[in-house]
Specification:
Layout lengths: L2 H13 L7 E5 L11 E7 L17 E7 L2 E7 L10 H14 L3 E10 L9 E9 L27 H13 L4 E8 L8 H10 L3 E3 L3 H9 L4 E10 L10 H25 L1
Parallel strand pairs: 1-4, 1-5, 5-9, 6-7, 7-8
Antiparallel strand pairs: 2-3, 3-4, 5-8, 6-9
Helix pairs in contact: 1-2, 2-5, 3-6
Length: 271
């Protein structure tokens, strides 16, 4: 990755009218409808943006959407990238760098995840308070990382406390049951075995997914305040484990999505 590449990606988007967004949003699996809330939207498909990876997962559409929400300019990733698609860490996190260079001051991330904490149920929303990186690498582990920011990034408080408090307030106001917990990121794309779910619980994970953590690491590297919510789409009880049904996971994500949209739209208004 070079600064020249980042400049070309940014300049292309600016030429399409993507001017100084304040907030960047990453939408997870089955969580694409937030873009319907954007006014005066402009769209850039990933395959047209220089040096952008392409989303290869069938339920990730692959476009950046720019426009207005709550009287603020936003840029939204509708479709994200995953290590399980064969990408490197810097591919997965490249769009975060581009959005930062466009001008974003805050980053919101959503994901679909499995509930490891058996007190949590599918259809719940979990505010991510901390994470465990089980993806076997880092988006900061490349030679010239110091050209883009600190090599050794503090992760004592990776998720912005101020925005987390605001999300708690929004959830109470709108009667959204909000769980709080630790998100574990694995590579995937296979789901976990019973033994792996037991391991995750022992490690202190409340939910497990295949994304988010690399993006959060880069946000901290860029000193970009970030917050993340997980839509819990399945219950990972190793003693009563059902075979995975991806269609059902997408359906649960779709049913829970309005809560996530409420949280993000109200948070935008409060910032």
């Amino acid at each position: 990755m070079t600064q020249k590449q980042l400049n070309e990606s940014t300049e292309y988007l600016q030429s399409k009218g993507f001017h100084e967004p304040e907030i960047g949003i990453v939408l997870g699996t089955g969580l694409g409808k937030l873009v319907d809330e954007i006014e005066d939207s402009l769209v850039a498909h990933y395959h047209n943006i220089p040096f952008f990876p392409l989303a290869t997962v069938e339920f990730h559409t692959g476009k950046l959407v720019y426009g207005t929400m709550g009287e603020k300019k936003v840029v939204v990733m509708q479709g994200r990238f995953h290590l399980y698609e064969g990408y490197e860490f810097f591919d997965v996190t490249y769009p975060i760098r581009v959005m930062r260079q466009l001008g974003i001051k805050k980053l919101f991330i959503s994901n679909a995840a499995g509930a490891v904490n058996l007190d949590f149920k599918k259809g719940d929303i979990m505010l991510v308070e901390d994470h465990i990186n089980l993806q076997g690498g880092s988006p900061l582990a490349f030679k010239n990382v110091a050209e883009f920011g600190d090599r050794f990034v503090d992760m004592s408080e990776p998720y912005d406390p101020e925005m987390r408090k605001k999300i708690e307030t929004i959830s109470q106001k709108h009667n959204i049951s909000l769980r709080k917990g630790v998100y574990a990121a694995v590579v995937g794309p296979q789901l976990e075995t019973k033994a792996e779910y037991r391991m995750l619980k022992t490690l202190g994970a409340d939910a497990v997914g295949m994304s988010t953590v690399p993006e959060v690491i880069i946000a901290n590297h860029l000193r970009l305040p970030v917050v993340a919510v997980s839509v819990l789409t399945d219950e990972c009880d190793p003693d009563n484990l059902e075979p995975v049904n991806v269609a059902e996971i997408i359906e649960v994500a779709g049913k829970t999505e309005p809560k996530m949209i409420t949280i993000f739209t109200e948070l935008i208004k409060m910032l």
